[in-house]
Amino acid sequence: MAINVNTVYTTVLSILNKEQRGYLTPVEFNKLATQVQLEIFENFFEDYNQYIRMPKTDVEFASRMDHIREEFQVFEKTANASAVAINVYTQPTDLHRFGSAFYTKGTNSPEIGILSKRDYQQQILSPLLQPTTNFPVATYKEDKLTVFPAVTGPATSDISFNYIKKPSDPVWGYTVGGLGQYIYDPGVASTDFEISDSQQTECILKILQYAGVIIRDPNIVQAAQQELMQDQANEKR
To answer: How far is the CA of 204 from the CAs of 27, 43, 48, 117, 155, in angstroms?
Structure first.
């Protein structure tokens, strides 16, 4: 279940205003919320890689690995290229981490072998290793996949990308009341966090940490840091 953006914002404001420490505007909150969600999202992959390298004899490690994988599996997606020029296919606009690509022009939709430019140049020197529609290859640079062999009349549907998409930016949508106050309105382009509610505590603490910098209150920064460290220590027990 995703994290409700209004719950996070009202909690952050409640903590900040408890001792009249300051205020965080919706615009400031939305920027911090986007940054924090992306940080937590990236940590899924770092934590997963760490657990993979650990001995597999402890069942607890396995369960944590499964939990982390479940956290980012919901972001797995398959989509066609977003643009094409001859044999150069631009990746989907929401692609965050590339996984694999398939060539839909082949009879069996074969997976494309991703090669470095050097490896590709060496491969084409051999008559037996020439790429075909059933055994396609490609070089991948920045957001472009250059696929071989090229086809006549290329279309974005030629290539199917499997990838991890970037989470949508959380937005606390609002209208302005008669007294100039901000009123939460979920119908005004409001978007909840896409990470699961198991990350809600960490999300709130990280936003508070950044909020303390914005309102220039080192006590808030320090308190949030201590709570984060304690929360992370509890997770690893």
So the answer is: 16, 16, 22, 44, 44
Backbone phi, psi, residue 131, to 5°: -65, 145
The per-residue pLDDT for 232 is 63
Contact 148, 87 (CB under 8 A): yes
Q: Which whole-number Å values give the CA distances from 95 to 76, 82, 164, 168, 184, in the listed order?
A: 10, 10, 6, 11, 30
Query: Could you identify the residue written with the tokens 């020197």?
Result: 125
- Residue-wise pLDDT for 28-60, tens only, equals 999 999 999 999 999 888 877 777 776 665 555
Using one digit for the tens of pLDDT, what is the confidence trace for 155-186?
999 999 999 998 999 999 999 999 888 999 98
Q: Report the chain's mean pLDDT, rounded to a whole number.
A: 86
* DSSP category for residue 57: T
Are 71 and 130 in contact, with CB atoms under 8 Å apart?
Answer: no
- Distance CA(208)–CA(237), nearest Å, equals 25
Shortest CA distance to 140 belongs to which of 202, 90, 92, 180?
A: 90
b/e for 113-147, b at 16 or more Cβ within 10 A? Answer: bebeeeebeebeeeeeeebeeeebbbbbeeebbbb
- Cα–Cα distance for residue pair 137/75, rounded to 1 Å: 26
Contact yes or no for 21/214 (Cβ under 8 A): no
Contact 141, 151 (CB under 8 A): no
Could you give the percent of the chain with pLDDT greater than 70? 89
